[in-house]
Q: What sequence folds into this?
């Protein structure tokens, strides 16, 4: 059983992403992420952090290599098996991506959509269990009292917590968060990062967060991966990472500018 437990939840094998205009987003990346890790990805703007997350849940296709999710290739998956793998991966965006004119409850329920055949969600036939699950997800991020508010009545931090609840109701194995706190004030930032950390620790979901802030990376991450120009230039436990090493991730910029 030990070898089964040790299987990484995400494996990137020689992953290269070249955009149609020729820009190299990712260069031959080899990376394993294990079940239950809280990984923080840091690097300059344009380094390839978003490209990496979008490759993992196949929001876009990669040009070379292979990505395995819990042992299954998402790169090669088609149709139903692709949908099933995607269901295991929740995504959180900097801009929240809520349906602004819909209620908080309805937004969180959309996390369940992947579990229904298309005709059912068209007619809004969410089950009682799903509504209960959505409510519990909102409780977990302290947003239950806003369940009937419209999303656009909430502050940015509250909207991000609703988007976390939406991901929770999806019940994924992996949460990918692309600069989830970039547009939030420091206090709200702390709340959102703490929610993600709690979800990681209490529910065992693997979390990967792209962050601009090294301070946040050190405070919340257990592992730091540094990306520069589409390549992994650093990978290590936060506890053993020095400030000089982090500065090195950002190196190269000074000469260029
Ligand atoms: N759709 C796209 N088409 C062409 N180039 C892109 C596209 N998206 C991102 N890039 C380029 O890929 C590189 C990595 O971008 P990105 O992953 O967004 O970086 P980060 O998230 O670290 O700021 C950058 O040079 C960026 O300009
Ligand atoms: Mg980005």
A:
């Amino acid at each position: 059983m030990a070898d089964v437990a040790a299987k990484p939840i995400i494996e990137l094998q020689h992953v290269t992403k070249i955009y149609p205009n020729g820009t190299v987003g990712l260069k031959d990346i080899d990376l394993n992420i294990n079940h239950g890790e809280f990984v923080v990805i840091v690097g300059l703007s344009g380094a390839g952090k978003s490209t990496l997350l979008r490759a993992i849940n196949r929001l876009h296709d990669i040009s070379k290599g292979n990505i395995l999710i819990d042992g299954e290739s998402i790169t090669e998956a088609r149709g139903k098996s692709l949908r099933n793998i995607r269901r295991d991966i929740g995504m959180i965006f900097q801009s929240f991506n809520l349906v602004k004119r819909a209620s908080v409850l309805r937004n969180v329920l959309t996390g369940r959509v992947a579990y229904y055949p298309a005709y059912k969600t068209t007619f809004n036939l969410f089950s009682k269990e799903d509504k209960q699950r959505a409510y519990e997800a909102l409780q977990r991020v302290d947003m239950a009292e806003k369940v009937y508010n419209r999303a656009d009545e909430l502050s940015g931090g509250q909207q991000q917590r609703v988007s976390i609840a939406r991901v929770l109701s999806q019940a994924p194995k992996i949460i990918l968060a692309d600069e989830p706190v970039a547009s939030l004030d420091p206090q709200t930032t702390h709340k959102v990062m703490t929610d993600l950390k709690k979800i990681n620790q209490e529910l065992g979901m693997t979390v990967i967060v792209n962050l601009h802030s090294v301070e946040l990376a050190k405070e919340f991450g257990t592992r730091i991966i540094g990306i520069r120009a589409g390549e992994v230039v650093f990978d290590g436990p936060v506890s053993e990472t020095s400030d000089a090493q982090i500065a090195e991730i950002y190196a190269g910029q000074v000469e260029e500018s």
The longest strand covers residues 24-33. The CA atoms of residues 220 and 236 lie 14 Å apart. The first helix runs from residue 2 to 5.
